[in-house]
Amino acid sequence: MAKLCLLLFAIVISNITAFAQQSSVLWEGDRSPGVVQIQNEPDSLRNRFYISAFGGLNAAQSGNELDPSPATYGPSKTYFEQSSQIGWLAGIKAGHVWYTGTGLEPALEIESFYGSVPFRGENGFKKLTPRSREWLAKRGLTYPGILDDSRFDANTGGQITSIHVMGNLILRAQMGRFRPYVGVGGGVAKVEQHGLWMRLNRGKETLVLPKDGGLVPAVQGIAGVEYLMGEKQNWGIFAEYKPLAHFNRQNFGDVYLQHLIVMGLKYYF
Asked: If you ran DSSP here, which 8-state letter would residue 39 be given?
């Protein structure tokens, strides 16, 4: 009986050893004929850092201002309306994505991008007050009869440039190699007007004004899709739509909104 038990034990150990050796060969990717290939899991099924470069279009803008700070203009009603133009932007981002095994992947990222877009619009005072007249006079925005009029209108134009630093929270869905995602972000932007000119509606004079702008808070929404490439899925290409809002009452209205469409290349470590 003891000899029989020893024999059975030896047979079991031998089979376990053989199975382990065969499994090792299979996981290492033996390409011998008749051997079933068992592939390693892609790197996308783990936590990963990534970097990215992107560029695209500032496809549309909008801004409207009513009743700005009385400390600046007095109690007068002002308005600011901008027509959409086509601009461009380019930037970089870095982030970290977490694999949860649930089909959803949260990610945190930080990005910075620079953009430029032409500016065209109409603005003015619907009701002039002593303080608003003083504000106009200091900037040379005068023409015969302006101080006696109850309304001031002008066409304006120039170039708007902006540098953004944003932090984003992203939620991605796993769909094979595709990763559709949505997100929100917030940060700061340095927005400036260059080559600003103003043409008075009731006169022929065109005034050139100095550069204006500064730091403003900004928030954005994000909707996009990414496609993972390569054997380990370490590369990705993506496209995004981002409505980007700036809050600056004095220069661009209560909300200055840009609609961004971008494409980019991403690498995962």
From this structure: P
Domains and CATH numbers, the chain: 1-40 (no CATH), 44-268 (2.40.160.20)
User: How do residues 221-264 score in pLDDT, each as one tens digit?
Assistant: 999 999 999 988 999 999 999 999 988 655 444 678 899 999 99
In sequence order, what are the residues at sequence separation of 6 or more whose Cβ sits closer than 8 angstroms to the Cβ of residue 217?
Answer: 186, 187, 188, 189, 246, 247
Q: What is the pTM of this model?
A: 0.70
- Other C-beta atoms closer than 10 Å to the C-beta of 57 total 16
Check if the beta carbon of residue 151 is closer than 8 Å to that of residue 133.
no
- The DSSP element (H or E) to which 131 belongs, if any, is helix 130-138
Residue type at 256? Y
d(CA 266, CA 269): 10
CA separation for the pair 139, 120 (Å, rounded): 19
Give backbone dihedrals phi and psi of 19, rounded to 5 degrees, phi first.
Answer: -65, -40
Beta strands (DSSP E) in the chain are: 48-66, 78-83, 87-97, 104-125, 152-173, 178-200, 206-208, 212-229, 235-246, 255-268
